[in-house]
Amino acid sequence: AERVHELNEEIGKLLAKVEQLGAEGNVEESQKVMDEVEKARAKKREAEEVYRNSMPASSFQQQKLRVCEVCSAYLGLHDNDRRLADHFGGKLHLGFIEIREKLEELKRVVAEKQEKRNQERLKRREEREREEREKLR
C-alpha cells in the first residue's frame, strides 16, 4: 500500500510537470516526462496487483485513504492519475509548500537578527566592563 501511494504521488507530480512544460511550450521535454509517467503507471499497476493479492477481498473493497504529507488532504490509494495531478498542482497543496518555504525563510531571518542583537549586547557589555576597569585605575 505504501508503494502504491508513493507511485501515485510520483505520477501526480510528473503530470503536473508535464502540464507546466506544455504550457511553457517545451513539447520535447514534456514528451520525455510523459514517458516517465507511463513507466511509473506500469510500476503502479504491478504494485497494486501485489497489494490486491496480499489482502483479503472484503478489506480491499473498502476505500483506502492516505494523508498528503504537505497539505494533510486525504488521497485515495487508488485515485486516478488525473485526480492526483490536479491535487499536486492545486492551489491548496502549492500554497502549503509556499507557506512552509516562507516560514523557513522567516526563521532564518529571525535567527540572524537575534545573533546580531546578541553580538551588539556582548560588545556593549565589553565596553562597559572596559570603562569600569579604566575608572578603577
UniProtKB/TrEMBL annotation:
Residues 113-137 are annotated as: Disordered. It comes from the Eukaryota. Signal peptide: none annotated. Residues 4-50 form a coiled coil. Keywords: Coiled coil, mRNA processing, mRNA splicing. The keyword Coiled coil applies. InterPro entries: Luc7-rel (IPR004882). Belongs to the Luc7 family. PANTHER family: RNA-BINDING PROTEIN LUC7-RELATED (PTHR12375). This is RNA-binding protein Luc7-like 2.
